Each structure stands twice: as structure tokens, then as C-alpha cells.
Amino acid sequence: MLPNPRGGVGSFRRKTTRPCASSLPDRCCDEKTGGVSISALEITLAGFAPGLFWLWYIRRKDHNEPEPRGIIARVFGLGCASAFLVLWLRPYIDPFAPPNAGWHRDLIDAFLLTAVPEETAKFLAFLIGAWWCSDLDEPLDGIVYGAAAALGFASAENVFYLIQTGDPALMALRAFTATLAHVGFTASLCFSVSLSRFGVCGNRWLIGIGAFIAAVVFHGGYNLFLWRGPQYTHLALLGILPLSLALLGAKIKWSQKQSTLLHPRPAKV
Asked: Which of 116, 174, 183, 246 is 20 to 30 A from residue 57's alpha carbon, by CA?
């Protein structure tokens, strides 16, 4: 179970205060100088390590025509920036949550106040960073760039979690839960949108809207079950998370076959 069950994928839920010297863990701040000590660097490295590892792993799946590292880095950076956008936005949308605790409040918060803005922010990072690039020329590229946006967001989120908890062991857990959950939700969304771009299926707008709704449903459901306590946690970690990753894995395998057709390797003489 996650140390903060009400954090879920969206760690910015009702966290409206700006991180400052008084809110950082004691070992992360040099009170004499007023600056951040080397421990802050350790927190940053620990927060980004899982995301960078999974980004390397997913990029290796695109072995026929690997995407340029520069564009992937740009989308990853925009994903990080999108996390700050959501952090800035939270104080303005939190008042829309119902005042009384319970299922109704958590439903509104998990789906409308957390999943919608976070999936929108990550999708914007994908659009701005990769959509108009000529290198996005096959469905698998949508997965790679979507994962880059998601992992950038998750890495920034991990850093915020570490600042709040001061517990590096948390990253070992989040590396295989929240970090991968972001990938499962957003990479699938970007894959579907990429399909519509290449005319593989249906109306572009309908496909995009449907894929976005699916990402929000998975994301919101994941958070909701985590927030509702131990009796529901298994539905998130053993249900929604594996299902989203299994679906993404199937999309990767299908896209790899398409990539082989689109970019055939020269026959050996």
C-alpha cells in the first residue's frame, strides 16, 4: 500500500502550498545559508531515476527506427513542466470539490479534479513536443512520445513526494506503481491519437475524445481506489494498473509489427 493512500497517481491533490525552506525535510535544507544542500540533489536524482529507466526501456521497443533523443528529451521536459502547471492549477480547482468527505467527494476529486487536468497536461506536453514533428511517422512513435510526457510528469511528481515525505524508499514503490500508471494511461491515449493521424481508424476527433475519456477513467479509478483505503487498494494495484499495462503491451506489440512493415530492414546479401 502506498504510504500516502490519498496521493494515488495525482500527488498534487489539495497540495496548494509552495515548497519553501520550512516545508522541506530537515536534511534537504541548509538553514545557515538559506540554500538547498546536496541532499536536494539526491532527492532529484532519486525522483527522476525511475522515470529515466522506464524511458530508456520503452525507447528500446522502437528498434526499427528509434526516435531522436533530442525530441524525446524535449517531450520529457515538457512533461515535467506540465506537472508544475497542474501544481499551480490545483488551488483554483480544489474549491469545486464537495465539502463533505465520502464517495461523492472522492469521485469528483479523482476523476474531474485530478485525472482530467493531469491527463490534459501530459497530452499537451505530447502535442507541443512531438505532434508536429516529421519523426512522428508511425503508431509506435505515439507510444514512445506519450510515455516520455508521462514519465516527465511522473518524475516531477516523485520529487514532490520525496520533498514531502523525505523517504527515498518510497521511490522503489512508486517506480512500479504510480510511475508506470502514468505511462499506461497517457501512452495509450497518445497511441490512439496517433492512429487517427495516420488514418488507421475512424474520425480523428472521435478517436481522440474516446481515448482521452478512457485515460481519465483508468486514471480516476486508480486514484479513487487508493484513496478509499486498504479494502480497495488491491483494485488499483492488482486490477487497474496491470490491466492498463497489459493493454499498452498489446499496443506495443501490434505497433512493432506495423513498424517492421513501414520501415523494412535491408535484406542481407
From this structure: 116
Q: 33-89 pLDDT, tens per residue?
A: 344 444 788 889 999 999 999 999 999 998 888 899 999 999 999 999 999 999 999
Reported residue count of the chain is 269
Spatial CB neighbours of 190, under 8 Å, sequence gap ≥ 6: 123, 126, 142, 143, 145, 146, 149
Three-class SS of the chain = CCCCCCCCCCCCCCCCCCCCCCCCCHHHEECCCCEECHHHHHHHHHHHHHHHHHHHHHHHCCCCCCCCHHHHHHHHHHHHHHHHHHHHHHHHHHHHCCCCCCHHHHHHHHHHHHHHHHHHHHHHHHHHHHHCCCCCCCHHHHHHHHHHHHHHHHHHHHHHHHHHHCCCHHHHHHCCCHHHHHHHHHHHHHHHHHHHHCCCCCCHHHHHHHHHHHHHHHHHHHHHHHHCCHHHHHHHHHHHHHHHHHHHHHHHHHHHHHHHHHCCCCCCC
Q: How far apart are the first and last CA of the chain?
A: 55
Residue 23 or residue 77, greater confidence: 77
Three-point CA angle 256, 177, 111, nearest 5°:
95
Amino acid at 264: P
**Planar angle of CA 138, 145, 233, nearest 5 degrees:** 120
Quick check: 122 and 149 in contact, CB under 8 A? yes
